[in-house]
Recover the amino acids of this structure.
């Protein structure tokens, strides 16, 4: 039996054994409710406070600005719906008032679908296009801001192609409008950025930032939303005063401890891991593009996080290549895991002004700090053969 190689780390990462070790006491003996005042509860509360400090340190925030959630999707929902609902006006004030949102054309479904839902009910939504590298023009975002714009939500890093967006430039524009008296916030879905590149909320100028534990070798089912001091959100989970009233419900202590542990480990290894993965990825891409005809890189070659590589192969279907590689022990992806099962070409690749064939032949390879050079060498041996085999089969079927 061959040893399997996992290269779908943008979908989820393996749980770091050291993170699990920190979680275990809170799954066994230290099982208290963090809202209880007895010693069991206070042990849990202390663990939550420590985790909040660790997560805050990863993005240069204040611990009080961290709201724990069930993951990136909930964080995005709380940021977007919470902003809109906190800006509701009484009908007597302005019956024609509709909050306005701005998003990019390549947002994750956890942002796009929320905005689609709101646009059909009570909001206007402007979708900003991206260039052929998958980057938004911050000036286009600025020009789209209206008097009734309450939220700009642009992802920090795209989950399929890894491109980095100019959030700091957008942040300056939003701050300028707020300084002029407009109640407007900037949200960024940073699920694919945190732990992969330096993220500093003060430098970005964002008011809301989403992150997720299972993207940084933490547990699934836990994430956080950074909420800048002074920002008011309408809570979406109502039923308790946990998380300073932003998110009701008993806190999952073990998962929160795991997120805090993963955040600290990501911070400590960020520079070393980023440099290693960038070299690994660049060498991988150079050799793929050199050895396989009609292979094309999707996304910006340089303005990208170091762990994501998205390549299109003409003449094949991405799903077919994924299955072929999986049979050989390699786990890769055709795009966002949340869109699995879809037979449509990736809307992200289409948004780059690519044709359907190139979009359908796109494969995402995503690495982690546990990815080894030997694993990439094995993939570089298997990949050209797989592409050649599938192209031959496709050509044979076309001639029948």
């Amino acid at each position: 039996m061959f040893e399997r190689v996992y290269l779908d780390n943008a979908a989820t990462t393996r749980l770091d054994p050291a993170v699990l070790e920190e979680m275990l006491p809170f799954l066994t003996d230290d099982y208290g409710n963090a809202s209880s005042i007895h010693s069991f509860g206070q042990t849990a509360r202390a663990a939550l406070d420590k985790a909040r400090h660790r997560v805050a340190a990863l993005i240069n925030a204040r611990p009080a600005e961290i709201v724990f959630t069930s993951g990136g999707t909930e964080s995005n929902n709380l940021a977007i719906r919470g902003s809109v609902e906190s800006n509701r006006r009484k009908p007597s004030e302005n019956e024609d008032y509709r909050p306005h949102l701005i998003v990019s054309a390549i947002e994750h479904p956890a942002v796009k679908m929320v905005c689609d839902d709101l646009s059909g009910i009570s909001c206007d939504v402007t979708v900003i296009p991206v260039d052929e590298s998958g980057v938004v023009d911050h000036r286009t975002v600025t020009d789209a801001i209206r008097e009734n714009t309450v939220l700009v939500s642009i992802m920090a890093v795209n989950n399929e192609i890894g491109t980095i967006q100019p959030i700091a430039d957008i942040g300056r524009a939003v701050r300028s409008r707020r300084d002029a008296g407009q109640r407007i916030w900037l949200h960024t879905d940073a699920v694919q950025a945190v732990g992969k590149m330096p993220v500093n909320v003060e430098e970005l100028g964002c008011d809301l930032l989403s992150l997720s534990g299972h993207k940084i070798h933490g547990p699934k089912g836990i994430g956080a939303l950074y909420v800048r001091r002074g920002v008011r959100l309408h809570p979406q989970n109502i039923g308790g005063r946990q998380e300073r009233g932003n998110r009701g419900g008993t806190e999952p202590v073990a998962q929160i401890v795991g997120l805090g542990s993963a955040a600290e480990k990501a911070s400590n290894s960020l520079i070393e891991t980023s440099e290693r993965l960038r070299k690994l990825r660049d060498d991988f891409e150079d050799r793929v593009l050199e050895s396989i005809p009609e292979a094309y890189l999707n996304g910006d070659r340089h303005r990208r996080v170091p762990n994501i590589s998205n390549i299109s192969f003409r003449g094949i279907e991405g799903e077919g290549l994924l299955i072929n590689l999986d049979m050989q022990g390699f786990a890769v992806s055709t795009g966002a895991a949340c869109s699995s099962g879809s037979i449509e070409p990736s809307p992200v690749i289409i948004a780059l002004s690519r044709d359907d064939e190139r979009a359908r032949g796109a494969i995402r390879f995503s690495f982690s700090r546990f990815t080894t050079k030997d694993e990439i060498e094995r993939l570089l041996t298997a990949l050209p053969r797989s592409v050649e085999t599938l192209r031959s089969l496709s050509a044979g079927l076309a001639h029948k």
